[in-house]
Design a protein that fits this description.
This protein is an alpha+beta fold. It has one helix and seven strands; from the N terminus they run H-E-E-E-E-E-E-E. It is elongated. The N and C termini lie far apart (75 Å).
Length: 124
């Protein structure tokens, strides 16, 4: 009886908490101050979700391709459209929820030969 009553009381509380606080760990924002001498701007994150970005200049949303280009793997934005020096651009984007590295290294496979070779023999 007590468990049923507790469950009935907690369901509305959880529903209210979810609707009031919408926090997404994978939603990120960044601010870029346009500098006419820079060709590209690195975002703090890499491996962005493709087409999740929204870039605003004041209240105007920029268009991908005609206003900017983005490298989703590296997290680098380059602007096609020229802005005044010092213009502030706001960027929101989502990242992949995986701990990926930009580069992975591996060893070369070892080659073993058994038996007699021209160089040397192994005996144990």
């Amino acid at each position: 009886m007590n468990k049923i009553l507790l469950t009935i009381l907690l369901i509305p509380v959880c529903a209210v908490a979810q609707s009031e606080f919408q926090f997404n760990l994978f939603e990120k924002t960044a601010t870029v101050v346009f500098d006419s001498t820079k060709a590209a701007y690195a975002l703090p994150d890499s491996f962005l979700m493709p087409f999740s970005e929204k870039i605003f200049s004041d209240s105007l949303m920029l268009e991908p391709g005609s206003d900017y280009r983005i490298d989703y793997v590296q997290g680098v934005v380059s602007f096609v459209k020229k802005f005044p020096h010092g213009k502030i651009l706001n960027i929101s984007y989502q990242i992949l929820p995986l701990p990926l590295q930009k580069k992975y290294y591996h060893r070369l496979p070892a080659h073993f030969s058994f038996g007699k070779t021209n160089a040397q023999t192994c005996s144990h």
